[in-house]
TrEMBL record:
<dbReference type="InterPro" id="IPR011333">
    <property type="entry name" value="SKP1/BTB/POZ_sf"/>
</dbReference>
<keyword id="KW-0862">Zinc</keyword>
<feature type="compositionally biased region" description="Basic and acidic residues">
    <location>
        <begin position="356"/>
        <end position="365"/>
    </location>
</feature>
<dbReference type="GO" id="GO:0016567">
    <property type="term" value="P:protein ubiquitination"/>
</dbReference>
<dbReference type="GO" id="GO:0005634">
    <property type="term" value="C:nucleus"/>
</dbReference>
<dbReference type="GO" id="GO:0005516">
    <property type="term" value="F:calmodulin binding"/>
</dbReference>
<dbReference type="GO" id="GO:0006355">
    <property type="term" value="P:regulation of DNA-templated transcription"/>
</dbReference>
<dbReference type="InterPro" id="IPR000210">
    <property type="entry name" value="BTB/POZ_dom"/>
</dbReference>
<feature type="compositionally biased region" description="Polar residues">
    <location>
        <begin position="13"/>
        <end position="22"/>
    </location>
</feature>
<comment type="pathway">
    <text>Protein modification; protein ubiquitination.</text>
</comment>
<keyword id="KW-0833">Ubl conjugation pathway</keyword>
<protein>
    <submittedName>
        <fullName>BTB/POZ and TAZ domain-containing protein 1-like</fullName>
    </submittedName>
</protein>
<dbReference type="GO" id="GO:0042542">
    <property type="term" value="P:response to hydrogen peroxide"/>
</dbReference>
<dbReference type="GO" id="GO:0009725">
    <property type="term" value="P:response to hormone"/>
</dbReference>
<dbReference type="InterPro" id="IPR035898">
    <property type="entry name" value="TAZ_dom_sf"/>
</dbReference>
<dbReference type="Pfam" id="PF00651">
    <property type="entry name" value="BTB"/>
</dbReference>
<dbReference type="InterPro" id="IPR000197">
    <property type="entry name" value="Znf_TAZ"/>
</dbReference>
Amino acid sequence: MESNHDSPAALSTDFSGHSHGVTSSTFARAKRSFLRELPEPDLFVVTSGGRRIPAHTGILASVSPVLENLIYRPTKRRSSHKIVLILGVPCDAVSAFIEFVYSSRCTEEEMEKYDVHLLALAHVYSVPQLKQRCVKSLYRRLTIDNAVDVLQLSRLCNSPELYLRCMKLVCRHFKAVEQTEGWRFLQHHDPWLELDVLQFIDESDSRTKRRKRQREEQELYLQLSEAMDCLEHICKEGCTSVGPHDVGPAKVKKEPCGKFATCRGLQTLIRHFAACGKRVGGGCHGCKSMWRLLRLHSAVCDHPGSCKVPLCRQLKLRSQQERRKDEARWKLLARKVAAAKAMSTLLQAMMRRRPRPEEVEETFKPGRAPRATSFKLAK
């Protein structure tokens, strides 16, 4: 059992001034000045190995409310030095914890070696700055092999960010995580956490499928919106070989429009619809598609009286008079198509306003003088 007594100066022997942009000589002078101003230690922190670390009640109590309660709680035995027991972790981890309490610093070597123990100490004794540093260190060292262990620790130490990061890693690499010793231990000793992991994976899969379905629906609504625009464009101005019924072939625009891929397919559908003898009774598959496009246009169109799309006014009046059962579905589809078009237009406008990468590089190019701006004071 260790029984070495650390001196007050030894509390800061591993401080790293360079990590905060301070030169080592400057930091050493500041450290010596700080230690000279401190009074004699009035408290000992005792570790599991029997190490007694001298400390000051005022400093510990000012950083940790838990240590403050331990220090100033009434005790039966009277002594010139108070004693605080910090057990269950390595002695060097306790020394690193006390060093952080004094200096708000911790070396990278100590953090890499004792980040798990320091996270537990920071949580137990309510030191949020140290807890944040430990979480960042565990972020960097998180792997498939230690994901389950860190997951259990994050739940015990109430670290939701680390818990979520571990859950996502386990979800992405579940087949590999299942082969680890940590997962086998979890199955035998913590079935509730195992259930939480499986529920998270199931919900993640459901969210992925739901997002995929919503993305496909959005693409379909955008295609229908583009088809509506092309239908109005063909019936109002004409495009290549198909045009309005009251405009001669010579006046129809022969140049392909910007959405010619959709226009060309729609023109083929219109020519088939005009020539098909089955369209009155519902028609073939192509005719049914054309009837649906015309019906959707009548639900979307706000000016049926002046609209040049065939059957627009008749279909709208018919739907209003008959009050068919599927009218609500057509209205819902029309709203979704309009919403998809509005979102697409807004996104395109935002993309146009966003600066191009070469413009950003030109703005922040090294050696480029900032643009001078002149101001005039109002008289």
